[in-house]
Model the fold of this input.
Amino acid sequence: MKLRYWIALTVFGAACATAVTTTRSPDVPENVQAPVAPKREPLPPAPLPAPPPETFFEMPYIGADAPQIGLLPDEAPDISRSVGTVTEGWLANSERVIPNEKMLFLEVHQERGLHYTSTFLKQLMEKTAEYVWDRHQSPLLMGNFGAPGGGDIPYSVSHNSGRDADLAFHMLAPSGNVWVPKSFVEFDENGQWVDASTGGVYRFDVARNWTVIEGLLTHHEGQIQMIFVSNGLRRLLLNHAAAIKAPPAIISDAARVLVQPGGALPHNDHFHIRVFCSVVDIESGCEETGRWQPNLAENRARRAKLLKDLRVHLSDTDPSIRAHAVQRLVLLQEQRAVSYLGKLLDDSDSAVRVATARAWTHLEGGHQPLIAQLEREENWRVRLELISGLSGVGAAKPTLISLLESGEAHQTPYGEIREEWVVAGAVATSEDQDYVAGLIRVMSVQEAEGVAHFARALAFLTNQQFESAQEWVAWYEEAKSQTRDEWLASGFQAAGFSVQKIGFESVWELCRAISGSDPVSHNAQKALMRLSGQEVPSLLWSKWDASFYWRRFFERKIAELGLPQIPPELSTAGGYVKEDEGG
Done:
């Protein structure tokens, strides 16, 4: 689980955390009579998910729009904090970039709403916009920044942690006048783009684009790590800078930071600015990647000092400081902390115990201390956190299965919560068929409200769709000797998708199945991840975006993987909104 979502989780969200594998649960008991298995007629194939309106994309809500970091003594509350890497991180206290006459989002990017970034990058954009406006009376042209709390976006593998920004190129129409496109436009190595509909030749406005680079490098205070741009456009920019006798220090800086990325598209349609972690970011768990890290030694020393201070904060008389220190150790991924965090599982304050229970699994502290604390814990919030934490540890499976039958019921401000419901939610996406028999057995003696919890978990685990306990018992009596892949295939078929087996021959039907019910869509995407060897966050996106991503991924690998030809109606050759994967 990404740490962004760990910070944002409530007890209920934590109850849906992923579990892992091994050991067997018992079959449905003999005293539960198995009715005749229900016969289901296959449904007609479902259509592809309806695309969003052509120029509008609404970011999916995933419960972490405004993640917060617990502050330590003397830390500033009103500054952004970048956590993790640019591809796996998130952003606390993000700031919105607000357009004006000097700072303009292109039309498509305005509608996406990806206008949030770090305090530093927002200020850098504002200063650069003033610089460009003063010299050309032209606005800074902006594309994607990030989501409100950072995290994954469909349009890029980065932009997660507030350290990336896309700027559009300035360009000239065939008439020679300034022209602003709706979205990014790809230029060739000579700085030209031909409009296929008119044949008009548009040019890369090298003067204005150099001013953008000059403005960025004048104000970046050594924080710009890279500006991705294609080699051909880089050459045009540096030649122009030399011709106008730009400041040598700026030219030298530009020659260092302007790079065409490897292993990604060349960035011939926009500038992609990436900045280093700030001091505050490093102390919040920010991670830098890449070979050139000039602040590496300083950052390591700063981290070492912070870890020493955190050991002191763990004994603070203020329980909120103790809890915040535990959280920070997780953000810093300090696995050695398990050697001294154990005592806080039994802290006098329940909030500290909750924080420690969450931290324990992330730091791979082992399941025995969690089980021992669960046996003596009385606070309902802590108990549910401990159960959720155990769901991520394969060796804890016997404990979880026993809780299905002997878990406690808690009266909370949110109504009654039963521990077996929490277990069901926690193991639902574990992909572990060993939980199925236990869930069905307990489901058969549940009241209606409880049945719904178990039916949902079983739908994700088995890819089947039944409502009553009797139907589930009947199905399991017939299917318990099958593999989970066989369950998945039959579930896809019942939902109207012609998936005979989980393999490359079924890739296109699995792509279609993303449009199905939530469990069917989830299992289709997990199957595609398994086949591709790629763990991508498509489960967090809309079904349309997930479908488009996976169709495009496999369409590009038809020859490499020996796939059947993609059905014409599934092809992504016509594009969605023309985007790059690396930007």
Observations:
- Residues 4-46, 51-64, 577-583 have pLDDT under 50 and may be disordered.
- The longest strand covers residues 270-275.
